[in-house]
Amino acid sequence: MLDRNPETAKMGEEILPFELGYLPEYFQKKAAVELSETPERKEQSLCQIKEFLRGDKNTTGLIFDDDFLIQFLRVRKYNVAKAFSQIKSYVSLRKKNPQIFLNFSYEWIVKTLYDRTITILPWRCQDGCTVIIVELDNWDPQTFPVDQVKKALVIYLLQSLREPMSQVNGIKAIIDVKSNPLRHVRYCTPSNLHLIYHGIQEVCPSRYKEVHIVNNSLTFKAAWYIIRPFLSDKIKKRVNFHNGTETLLNFFPKAIMPKHYGGDLENFQMWDWLKRVTTPEILATVGGVQNWPSQNEKRRSSSASNSIIIT
């Protein structure tokens, strides 16, 4: 009932824009079927997960936005205990890696569009999925440091998940791993790969429906050797390998794909969207926590806890 053929899907009918802001009736039914979502269950689960958060020492005192909590409930199909556990993983990752959630810059992140390193397509797949393309060969670590890449991934993943359509339908990723190993292999460290794997698979509240690997390379072989044992069986089954770009059109409508991947799109960079989601007021709410302590507050707290009071 909820399957759609990419070959027959039409723009404006089955194929909808990335920026929609609401769930059309068709996808409300899909959420009910696949996620067991109803208005009553959503309200009840929100109340329950807030109680869990207030009662846990790692999350008490933090104020989470409702739409952020809904993302975790949807990705866990309203299993409140699993959603709560994933939120705690998010809080833990953010505490251990504060630098990737601070000092975001439009000037840096916009390089991903200029260089075509990370791209969110302006149109969704026929089944409502967000489509993200990563083109590894376009990444030059000399002009776009790896720490800025991590911040860009935070922006792209967390900001794209503000769309209800992305929460319900998930993400399909095309990863073009063609690469200059002299530029990239040195960054395939266990710590970098673990952060990316852990952050994307175990922390970020996204449903990963398909991953398409194009153009094998030495860099990818090194990374795959390290990451593959840790991937869930579900994710492994959703990874598709392509010898060329032609077979991508077996999975994606031609109308939504860039021309260099065999599609019809010439202009696909999301300049306006990226400007909107990197304004200071929007960046202040990245991550869904209204009162996350600043670095200065954390330093004062740490100093106070380590001090000795002599009476």
Automatic annotation (TrEMBL):
Residues 292-311 are annotated as: Disordered. Coiled coil: none annotated. One of its GO terms (cellular component) is membrane. PROSITE patterns: CRAL_TRIO. SUPFAM superfamilies: CRAL/TRIO domain (SSF52087), CRAL/TRIO N-terminal domain (SSF46938). One of its GO terms (molecular function) is phosphatidylinositol bisphosphate binding. Residues 106-269 form the CRAL-TRIO domain. InterPro entries: CRAL-TRIO_dom, CRAL-TRIO_dom_sf, CRAL/TRIO_N_dom, CRAL/TRIO_N_dom_sf. Residues 302-311 have a biased composition (Low complexity). It comes from the Eukaryota. It holds the Pfam family CRAL_TRIO. This is CRAL-TRIO domain-containing protein.
